Amino acid sequence: MIFSQIIECLYDLNVGIIGVGGERHERPHKPLLLLAALDLIDAGLATPSRIPWSRELRDRFTARFEIVHHHDDKNTPENPFYYLQTQGFWQAWIEDGNTTHPLKTTPLVNQTGHVFARFIDGFEMILALPENRMLIREALISRYFPGLGRQDISASPPLSFVAEDETEYGRSPAFRRKIIEIYDHQCAACGLRIRLPVANEVSFIDAAHLIPFSESRNDHPTNGLALCKNHHWAMDRNLIAPCPDHRWHVSKIIDPRRSNGEKDLSDLSGKTLLLPKDEAFHPDAEGLAWRCKQLIA
Question: Can you give the residue ranges of every domain in the chain?
């Protein structure tokens, strides 16, 4: 498995979604457990082929959990330790004397020293390099916890961000794939949806950040919109903007009398955003407000 494929796997973890209304959110457990595992490898307390079920792992998980959790999340690192196996790149094992068996249920605290996990399917080779672990850590934070890197977490190493180009290490394609999936290949402005069943599947939809990644370091789906290329172009040039009222606003410099193209943009004014079915992925109010402020008066 190549690096870009690994990033895509991590951007599409089966995390589960709970809550209603404004409290609806992705569960944080799997990405938090992966961050804790990376911490242990960096500290020399684990290797990609042996992540011990240990107090250190649970402490690192808990330190971040206390920052990002919602009221209905439970501090249960044992669940992702076991259920990460469904992702295809993680295996959990239990040692019984001189024999090792696959772990059949979530581990207990008193099984410390007898239970461990390991990365497989090419992950173990990628994670052997410190620079790759840094990029994967930053990808996980950008996708699931874009505010976490700015927190002071004593149980974790510094979570600094590196100013990467948006297309590097497979992060941008992974973000695009997730946004297009959430919006079902439909433009949030005009509703265009063209999806061709050919090799590598062609979609006419882009994934647009509300607050640019270079400024926000935020790849969570709530910082994105699915837009056709025309409306992506127009939003990036601040001619149109999705605003906190969930309607499109259009710059006054657009004159519908000049051309059909400008008329099409003008007609977008006041129309509602076409949003994902799941409220957990509705655009964040902060990002919408940022875009609204960029609109050319």
Answer: 3-150, 168-294
